[in-house]
Amino acid sequence: MDRSYEILVVDDEKLIRDLIKKYAQFEGHRVTEAGDGMTAVDICRKKDFDIIIMDVMMPELDGFSASREIRKMNNTPIIMLSARGEEYDKIHGFEIGIDDYMVKPFSPKELMLRVNAIIRRSEAGSGGGEKREELKFGGLVIDLTARIVHIDDKRIDLSPKEFDLLSFLARNKDVALTREKIICEVWGYDFYGDDRTLDTHIKLLRKNLGDYASHIVTLRGVGYRFEEK
Q: Which superfamily, per CATH, for 6-125?
């Protein structure tokens, strides 16, 4: 492990919090706990974290609502935990801007692997440079330096992972990219999700791009390609 992380664990079940805390501290990380979403939001107003592990069903304020409030303050990576694995819940979470989704019961060891992978990707994507770098495709402008996307001079809101996905596809315009290649580059070689996570993000990204969604072409049986048009 390169360094210790500040982790916020939010779950109304103390046994779950204790389990996560045990594994996180074993790896040298520092853990702050919250038993409900309202408390989590208050904590995030006072302290910054490297990652947040958030349960969905909680009293006071559910995980989705808490994540939405936290997203107004910062882009701290969020892993959502839920006893339900329906696609609707996952899509709703990704629309809010969470980075990953795990269904209970889960493996604490796998959770820690995902924590490490997400933080490494987040840190790798945050390194800035003095020179501003932009990709332009007609009215679609991707500001790689500021991590901002404009469509016809209007800024659109993308989740951190949606931006990573769009920028990777656009950097490799007119190149056929396999699903495995995209997952490895955007989520990391130690990604522990499944292919549906990629499909869900592509669906959300196309929705946000509106008229420019046609830039992303599905290659059946292969993956995707970003076409300049």
A: Response regulator (3.40.50.2300)
